[in-house]
Amino acid sequence: MINVGINGFGRIGKCCFLQLLNNPNYQICCLNSTNITITEVEDYLTHDCAHTNYDKSFTFSIISTDEFQINHHTIKIVCDRKAGNIDWNSFGCEYIIDTTGAYLTTSKCLDYNSKYVIMSSPCKDNTPTFIYGVNEDKYHGEKIVSASSCTSNSLTPLLKLLNDKYGVNNCVFTTIHSATASQFVVDCPKASSRITRSIINNIIPHTTGASSSVTSVMPELVGKINGTSVRVPVINCSLLDVNIELTDEKVKLEDIIKLLKNDILYKVVYDVSEKKLVSSDFMTTSTPSILDANASIDMGNGKFKLMVWYDNEWSYSAQLLRLVESMYLHNIHNNKIKQIYCMNNLNIENKRVVCRLDLNVPLSNGIITDDYRITSALTTVKYILSKHPKYLIITAHFGRPKGVGYEEKYSMNFLAPILSRHLGVDVTFLTDGICESTLNVLNANPNGIYLLENLRFHKEETEYENMDETVALNTVVVQQYKDMGDVFICDAFGCLHRKHMSICAIQTFGKEFGYGDLIRKEVNAIDKLTNNPNLNKLAIIGGNKIKDKLPIVNSLRMINNTTVFVAGGLAKQYDEKHDNVVIMNDGYGNVDLSLPPIYINDVKLTEYNAYDIGYKSADELYKLIINADVIFWNGSLGVIEHTEYKEGSLKLIEFLQTTRDKIIIMGGGETASLVEDKNKNIYVSTGGGALLEYLEQKLNHGKLLVGLDIFTK
Questions:
Q1: Which H or E run includes 436?
Q2: What global pTM score does this model have?
Q3: Mean per-residue pLDDT for 548-552?
Q4: Closest CA to 283 of 244, 321, 250, 309
Q5: Cβ-based burial of 92 (10 A; exposed 0-12, middle 13-18, buried ≥19)
Q6: Which of 72, 489, 549, 607 has its CA 20 to 30 A from that of 408?
Q7: Annotated active-site positions, please?
């Protein structure tokens, strides 16, 4: 979740606010406005002279004198002319959008005392400037940035596209700009500028800083760009008159149109209007650079007069929010676990090593049905042994004991001979778990490999997250666990979403601690999905729990160049419509699992339950796979516990295993158990809930799992 504060509630502040109302990836935490009261907010948002076709079906309620609820946003409203007087952090704001125009230098923006500040105007110093679609990929975590001006956000993306493809020799532009709030209805006695004259019945020559803004993000165009501005009596929407000479003299106007239409940001940053429209027709459009094909002129030899429309309020606000989102994605991607905590950098030789693994394997009639969690941990165990520790204690949990002592059905005794077989050496089982007698055994026999009894037989393991840290560290069990080792290594990826003692307390022991090879591989594999902005990504989300999966679908669809395919029982429940979300349409099922399968042409318009994917949707899915570079799959396409309805998932696995030159990541859980050979081209995660929570935390909140966060400090 991107937590924002908005300072200023004028034209840009209002347009940003309105565009965030139904965006589930944003939370507006605080609004600072000096010219509106909480009782006036609803009417102000409902009525607008310029914008009329936005969604007004929001729900609004006043909670207290300084707090209101609107859709999913709970917002503090304050009234202070000095941003430094507001404790933005206490309201949960991480990204402050300044729309006041009063904070246009880095030194002034430091008053916010917030993580990130975005100016909605060109800066007046050397604050880094970023324009979405131009140089947002150059952002490297800067705390205070400028989003430049509305004119720059219209002109610069077009210039970048043309310069990259054909080269720009020179450009002279005039922005025919609508009136702004700084102008006057009648003549003002100040005679220092023509801008003080009445905007109602005048065309007013004015200046623009767009030339310098362009070259601040495209320094290669220094000396090639010049421009001016005129203000005209319309309340919104502007037109750029761009006279440009390209290096490539063979370029035709139709080539430029084709270039825009084929760009990945077409209909986002660029658009082409081929109808004979006027300024009001572009009201409330979110695309900042709309080429008017009919009004533009091809003058030959690479010279053009290009006419470009933009909504200087709405599209600029959209660009501003795109920049905020790109900053957020960069920042969470760089919230990485540190290499210094990798077990390869720990001093293990002749040390007592405690290694926490996830050995919670599935059992059926006493037989392990899938040993992947065991085999996945062997690399780490073998590495530790190769460094000749004094001894190694493997700790883990099995099942969900209540933490009230020994329960036979949850004993891990059966795992000791299995580990012995895999490692080729004896593994001694520590029957008594964490206690004084176990410490005595270790002191008497300070060599070898040990497996500790189920950690969850001790209530301190799971109750640690609810305990005061000082109190927890003084409990006997935590102290005894601490006394077992000199070095603590965690490699239990499937458990990292739990703040349990064996996962998180190790950072408080005052001893060496780190992570194992499995965690490194899991994080690197999943980050291939969230990173790599230029690769085409496909996320296949199945299963049946809409409550668990809906946040993930909405998070994944916000990743650049990502298509989400919704399947399984989710397909019938998922009601949202997005351009990059494809929903399974046909399937096989019946009213009950006990009845034989029948074909369902439309899973949404039937009383039948869809228990497996249909052939039409499967074909569509395979085509998406062929066009994808990175594929992530979590959740089955059908009810895989039933033989009749696991066919779609099995065929998908077979199809994925035949693909080449693709990054394929498969989530843990029951679907992953269908993959018999987990060493082929599909990376199978050991985490089920941990994997989904990892994605949700990273994409929505910019955070890591609690069990990973200890390795970032």
A1: helix 436-444
A2: 0.59
A3: 75
A4: 309
A5: middle
A6: 489
A7: 150
Q: How far is CA 553 from CA 20, 559, 574, 593, in A?
A: 18, 10, 10, 26
What is the token pair recorded at 459?
């209530």
SS3 of residue 233 by DSSP: coil
SS3 content of the chain, % helix, strand, coil (to 5): 35, 25, 40
Sign of CA dihedral 438, 439, 445, 449: positive
Beta strands in 89-224 (DSSP E): 95-98, 116-119, 144-146, 168-178, 204-206
Spacing of C-alpha 268 from chain mean position: 18
Partners of residue 140 on adjacent β-strands: none
Place of tokens 């066009």: 627
DSSP state for residue 486 in the 8-state scheme: S
Burial class (CB in 10 A: 0-12, 13-18, 19+), 410: middle
Q: What amino acid occupies position 325?
A: E
Q: Is the dihedral of CA 665, 670, 674, 676 positive or negative?
A: positive
Please report the domains of the chain, with CATH numbers, ordered by start residue.
Answer: 2-127 (3.40.50.720), 150-316 (3.30.360.10), 340-515 (3.40.50.1260), 522-709 (3.40.50.1260)
Determine how β-strand 363-364 pairs with β-strand 367-368.
Answer: antiparallel
Percent pLDDT > 90 in the chain is 70
Query: Could you tell me if 363 and 541 are in contact, meaning their C-beta atoms sit under 8 angstroms apart?
Result: no
pLDDT at 636 > cutoff 80: yes
Separation of alpha carbons 210 and 176, rounded Å:
13
Are 567 and 639 a contacting pair, CB within 8 Å?
no
Residue 687: strand, helix, or coil: coil
CA distance 587 to 589: 7
Of 281, 310, 173, 179, residue with least CA distance to 232: 179
> Among candidates 651, 646, 637, which has minimal Cα distance to 571?
637
Q: Are strands 168-178 and 289-292 parallel, antiparallel or unpaired?
A: unpaired
Q: Read off the pLDDT of each residue in 232-256 and give the average, rounded to a whole number.
A: 97
Confidence of residue 426 (pLDDT cuts 50, 70, 90): very high
User: 647-658 vs 615-626: helix axis angle to the nearest 10?
Assistant: 20
CA 303 to chain centroid, in Å, comes to 42
- Please report which helix (H) or strand (E) contains residue 683, including its range: strand 682-684
Residues in contact with 83: Cβ distance below 8 Å, sequence separation at least 6, in sequence order: 7, 32, 96, 98, 103, 111, 112
- Which tokens hold the place of 609? 């339950």
Q: Is 274 left (phi over 0), alpha (psi -120 to 50) or beta?
A: alpha
Cβ atoms within 10 Å, residue 437 = 11
Question: How do 391-395 and 270-273 pair as beta strands?
Answer: unpaired
For residue 570, give both structure tokens.
Answer: 């989710």
* Non-local CB neighbours of 116 within 8 Å, separated by 6+ positions: 94, 95, 96, 143, 144, 145, 327, 331
Q: Is the predicted pLDDT of residue 679 greater than 60, yes or no?
A: no
Is the backbone of residue 125 left (phi > 0), alpha (psi -120 to 50) or beta? beta
In contact, 112 and 84? CB cutoff 8 Å: yes
Q: Residues 168-194: what's their mean pLDDT?
A: 90
Q: Return the structure tokens found at 681.
A: 């081209």
DSSP state of 685: P
